[in-house]
Amino acid sequence: YQNSGDPFDLALVGLMQILPIFLFFFVTGWATDSLPRKALLIICTISEMVILGGITLVMLADELNLTIIFSLLFAHGGVKAFYTPAQQAIIPNIVPADMLSRAIALNSTIGKVFGTAGPLLAGILITLIDVYTYLVAAGLMGIGTIAYLFLPKLTRLKPAGRSLEMVLGGVAYVRSNSIVLGAIALDLFIVLMGSVVALLPVYAADILNVGPESLGVLRGMPALGGVVVGLGLAALPPMRRSGLCLFAALVVFAGSILVFSLSTVYWLSLMALFVYGAADMVSVNIRMTLIQLATPDHLRGRVSAVNAIFISSSNEMGDVRAGSAAAILGPVTTVFIGGLAALGVAVGGWYLFPKLRHLDRLADLCPP
Q1: Which conformational region is residue 317 in: left (phi greater than 0), alpha (psi within -120 to 50 degrees), or beta?
Q2: Which listed site, 90, 174, 186, 356, has its alpha carbon 20 to 30 Å from 121?
């Protein structure tokens, strides 16, 4: 933006990174189910090192070439499209079923910690070393590559067929399995209806009357709630009556949105956002665990690729819904209606997916 001065370029930065997830999902899932997952993860991290090195060189040039930058960002999105299903599908290969929910909780917690700390650290590094920050990121990818090399040798998968039916096997499986379908559908609609992050700047400035520093704290509260609960889930034994816990978490999630929408007190808004992140972590942990355990290993990559599309769609469309509705209805009405809609999704899911609500121990799930 400093080089072009065009806000649309910022939109293209996001588009170039998310577009490959939609364009290549049928290939990425198939690759995860056909190629050695450990090798695929290593290839992805090495590719990221090359891409980050390329971005560094382009940024050091006398004149910034946006075409090359956007091409590298598209390549980054492509690598992420392959990495995500492989990273999700490999966890059940290296963790016993009765420990999977704790492993996923720990994985999600680490993701939230670094998802929050990463941009902060990047901002500090950019101030200190400018574009060489990308080389630091490349070095961290190198550490990731070494870590993957130490993973145990995994049983080689039988390659999935190359017919269209095999490539789209993840879609067919999701449609046929009500538990997996329910988990993915709930994730899509609860996030679509309940997204509030996009409107935090409006709430901070116009409703809570706080400054940029307080806005930063507001932004960090959902992650803090998720981290605290995630650490608890990772330390505690797997929960019983998982279906009931899932829907209880969704109701609490919706309730926190309703409280936040009506709050004009800063500390109450902080508490609501903390609960928002905590409840989301519980539901994400249950949904991610059951998707992995209810899916046969030879389909996990393709199902994870389908899930990645819905996650990306719900996050992006949720922000678009919130922003566009707020322009017409105002922020308070928009968030309040979103909370009611999220509550409706939870109630609707309770009746639409009876197998989901009757789940007990996730470790007892067996793929058909």
Answers
A1: alpha
A2: 90
Please give the pLDDT value at position 300. 78
Q: SS3 for 271-288, per residue? A: HHHHHHHHHHHHHHHHHH
Q: Which of 179, 73, 192, 220 is nearest to 134 (CA)?
A: 73
- In this prediction, residues 307-335 reach a mean pLDDT of 79
pLDDT 10s digits, 248-303: 999 999 999 999 999 989 999 999 999 998 998 888 888 888 887 788 877 877 88
- Helices marked H in 150-241: 164-167, 169-176, 178-194, 200-202, 212-235
Locate the domains of the chain by residue range.
165-360
Among candidates 334, 4, 26, which has minimal Cα distance to 194? 334
Write down the pLDDT at residue 216.
79
Q: What is the pLDDT of residue 63?
A: 84
Region 165-360: CATH code: 1.20.1250.20
Burial 266-292 (b: 16+ CB within 10 A, else e): beebbbbbbbbbbbbbbbbbbbbbbbb
Question: How far, in Å, CA of 242 to CA of 44, rounded?
Answer: 34
Q: How many whole angstroms separate alpha carbon 102 and alpha carbon 107?
A: 9
Asked if pLDDT for residue 223 goes beyond 80, the answer is yes
Contact 46, 22 (CB under 8 A): no
- pLDDT for 227 equals 83
| Contact of 13 with 51, CB cutoff 8 Å | no
Interacting residues of 329 by C-beta distance below 8 A, sequence separation 6+: 337
The residue count for the chain:
368
Tokens 């249950």 correspond to 286
CA end-to-end distance (rounded Å), the chain: 51
One-letter amino acid of 249: A
Q: What is the DSSP string of 295-319?
A: S-GGGHHHHHHHHHHHHHHHHHHHH
CA distance 237 to 41: 29
* Opening angle at CA 89, ends 122 and 116, nearest 5: 20
Q: What is the CA radius of gyration of the chain?
A: 21
0.70 exceeded by pTM: yes
pLDDT tens across 265-280, in order? 999 999 999 999 899 8
DSSP designation for 124: H
